[in-house]
Please model this.
Amino acid sequence: MSLSIAYLGPPGTNSETAAMAYVEHLKQITGQECILCPDPTIAASLQTVALGEAMLGVVPVENSLEGSVSVTLDSLWQLDDLQIQKALVLPISHALISWASSLSAIHTVYSHPQALAQCQGWLEKSLPSSQLIPTNSTTEAVMRCSEDYETAAIASARAAELYLAPILAHPINDRPENCTRFWVVGKQPSPGGSHTSLAFSVPANVPGALVKPLQTFANRGINMSRIESRPTKRSLGEYLFFIDLEADARDPRTREALAELETYTKTMKIFGSYSIVCN
Amino acid sequence: MSLSIAYLGPPGTNSETAAMAYVEHLKQITGQECILCPDPTIAASLQTVALGEAMLGVVPVENSLEGSVSVTLDSLWQLDDLQIQKALVLPISHALISWASSLSAIHTVYSHPQALAQCQGWLEKSLPSSQLIPTNSTTEAVMRCSEDYETAAIASARAAELYLAPILAHPINDRPENCTRFWVVGKQPSPGGSHTSLAFSVPANVPGALVKPLQTFANRGINMSRIESRPTKRSLGEYLFFIDLEADARDPRTREALAELETYTKTMKIFGSYSIVCN
Model:
């Protein structure tokens, strides 16, 4: 039976590229066949998995230029029983896609806000007077620019190929080392691995309330590779902290740290331990 | 002479409401007259101030539902000599604006991504099959919905009034206690006040590298009201930390903590001390 994998569609998005990379990885290891299921939003991809309508979901977590993808963190906190099965790091390269005959004919550029932000410098230099219009996905941008020859889209070279659209410039991202990290999420038990992700809240307005949680890891020589705060959505100034550790939660030292951590937190959720695949 | 204040325009945005609240505040205290200057983006508002083309800028920092406004943090780090003069906390209330005769006639809703996110629940319940299209500002959404009577915008009641547009439902934000914090930024020396904001980076891949910086404040009983990480934009896994303290940088205890902090950081920038005005 094929394994269903949810992702932010339609085909041609960077999430699809990540999902395909994971499918290839699975095929090499287990020979498992997969079927990709596009969703209209990242939240919908995770919901689909939580409801059991797809076995796995591949969602972006963080870009090296634009930072966290908030909806992924917020959804993971809100939904139950989701565990991270794997992390994927993918280089992201953007192309300017347009049916215009030259750059000077373009007055509007469509793309996902993250992609627009990642090409900001190039746009200011090469298309200084064009209007930038955000879209829900890079693929939607390609579809919209096909309706008007004086507009362009920022999307992957693969999207251009899929929709038979011409590439006017590539790559146009401001930094060549542009990378995005994705998580493969499912309801299966945590597979274990080199990294562990979790989130927690601490009592409000206590000086140093965040120091003790971080010390539990520092005292044991466990490196925290990332900390991100998100609002609890109750009141301004109340946060959830999302943390990535370079440690396996099955390791006794990490288990001990997590048990101690729990005593300092108000609420806590462990999203599991997993390994990272770099493409 | 009038004092020029930059904000994310056009008129009708929540940034304009915040700028007007600050103008009112200034008038009461100093009698100073102000002129409001709309900019097309938040980054442009801050750049205008850094270049000396406007005396002050009013920019959103954080919403109680959607979290940090990344572009504000990133711009403040990149631009030189900007100091926070004041913080404003404003309740944010969203209206559904449309020329449609009823909800059932609406197939598309335009708004700024933050506003769409803040009304997510209401939209799923009341307009489940409508398409959500992001715009650069809530005001731009009102302008776009005026072109097609089967579409709607999410914006403030003030925007509806300014553009003579009908309100179909109000308020529609999922939580009534929806607030946004704004910063008033200028090149004037820091005025001092109850809160201090700063940002720093720490050496990469050192276990506990963030613990020491946080301890400098905890050891002195200084409460940290917020911590936010942003990518350095160099490589995945390298961060800047933005911190708000409940302390005045002119206070000897805080000065001592900041001096110690500097020894643990790679780079550090203090955005000044300021007081908070709640509306």
Notes: The radius of gyration of chain A is 20 Å. Chain A is about 30% helix and 35% strand. The longest strand of chain A covers residues 267-278.
